[in-house]
Prior knowledge:
Elements: H1 11-17, E1 20-33, E2 40-53, E3 59-65, E4 67-69, E5 72-74, E6 87-93, E7 101-102, E8 109-114, E9 121-124, H2 127-131, E10 148-149, H3 150-165
Helix pairs in contact: 1-3
Amino acid sequence: MRATTWIPADLRALVSAASAVAYGRVVAVDVQLAETSRAVERRVVVRVSDYYKGQLGGEVLLRVPGGTLGGYRTVVVGAPEFREGEEVVLFLRGETAGPASLVGLAQGVVRVRVDPQSGLRRVWPPASAAMADTQGRVLRGQGPRRVMALEAFAAEVRQIVERRERPGRPR
């Protein structure tokens, strides 16, 4: 038996820990046994439309722990669920060769929704950032999640990347 430790991460921490930040659409979700154990994992394929940081190619294969396959079931607290067709922004660790993983499990997934009235794409940043106070303690029900346009969110991520990469600037 294993345990999951969950530490809330704000947007700066997610961007910093990620080798790539990608926006795209989930095109496939497959459940299978992990190669090295009897644990069940999901393999998620995301067709990338844009990168806000890094580059892992036009499609990203993502390994997500957990799922049910035949008589095997693996439950991982904090592991996100994915549906084919949904749009997401992913904070990824990985390289172009081989599957990637999420930074902070579900914290590394930002859901994109299309506003039916305006047709604008909006994001709901990870709840963990809204639930933490200034000392990093998690306060349930505290802090509103700031819904914003996808373009504004992308600009914020790119600005964080630019600040971190600019020589002579504090990180």
